[in-house]
Amino acid sequence: MLVYNFLRYLLYIAIFFVSFFYKRLSRFIKKRLFQNIENKNFSSRDVILAHMSSVGEFNLSKELIEELLRKGERVLISVMTDTGYNAVKKAYDSNENVEIIYFPLDDLFSIKRIFEKFNIKKVIIIETEIWPNLYYFAQKKSQLYIVNGRLTEKKMKSYLKMKFLVKKVLNSAKRIMVQSKEDKGRYLRLGIDENKIKVYKNLKYSIKYEKISDEKKEKYYRNCVNRDKKIIVCGSTRPGEEKIWLEAFSAINKNDEYQLVIVPRHLERVQEIEGEIKRLFSENDYELFSQIQNFELEGNIDSRDKNEKKIFEKKKIVLVDKMGVLRDFYQLADYVFVGGTLVNIGGHSILEPLYYNKVPIIGKYYQNIEEIVNEAQKMNYVKIVENEDDIIESIKSEEILDTSKFFAKNNELEKIVEELYCD
Length: 423
Known about the structure:
single chain; 423 residues; alpha/beta; seven-stranded parallel sheet; 20 helices; elongated
């Protein structure tokens, strides 16, 4: 620890020098090392410190935090990034049982000050971040838990180069709850006490996604989505996937039974996708979402809207050129394709469509989401396609499944919370 902190302070000299010339870096350092924690409102009460890196880890752990709050706990949330801080603030700014701080970059004196200010009885690290000073004080003054721990082969190889330090730091945890048997094996190779390691399924299975209101659905139906047709939504599509789906849609939609909604992963590709659409369809067959969306998705339908039976002619194809509406369209869909899988990207999350009771269609390239796909396959809750014929077959099959069972089976949040209170 002495060597670690000595090297840190040598690094500080370089960072502070550079920060004189880069205001952004200066603001980053100031927010984290010189933040005011004196005005936090439950310093005299027992607190659980939950540390997470960014907004992704916060989304993962939100239901865990909610469970702790339901148990009457007070939670101090530490985040590294501005996006994470803002997400936590938006969710809990008015909750008197939650306080938010920036993680002070594992600075020895800042970490010590936090443990002196707050009566921290448990420290929960979301996923695996190794911060020796935080771990040291957590072990000394409270109980340390790692939740949703994961360790990739690549990261483990770098950890093996400093195995002595990593082994000592991680063994300071009372319990390490990892996502898979493979993760457990990697921790064991680092020399972690096997009795400390438990395998629980990914916290992703506990996430509760927002559902749109009936009124908002009605606005989509009135202005954009054709309620009389079967809606195919292709979400997070990548180059090459739109072409395959447009050709399949052209073949299957001879009787005009379907409507296709394309939501690309990157909006800068909209013009490119328009070119693909025009290759098979006329300009009157599609419309950009921004061009048909001159209605407010939020708020009440006014009396004028109620008297209008039709605002826009619904097109065969809707190309979405707006961020933040993919989950809305998933809820309106009859069929969902999740992109990055027909081309060798590795796949994007299939949890959202599963949560909204849709059986996702994906391609064969799903290495980034393999664990979740494998679980979904066990329950026949995913369709894997390789070409246009497979796509057409998957659309023609009318099997309806209740995917809520998928989350009931895989959500182990209750077991994780029990582990936190197991002496």
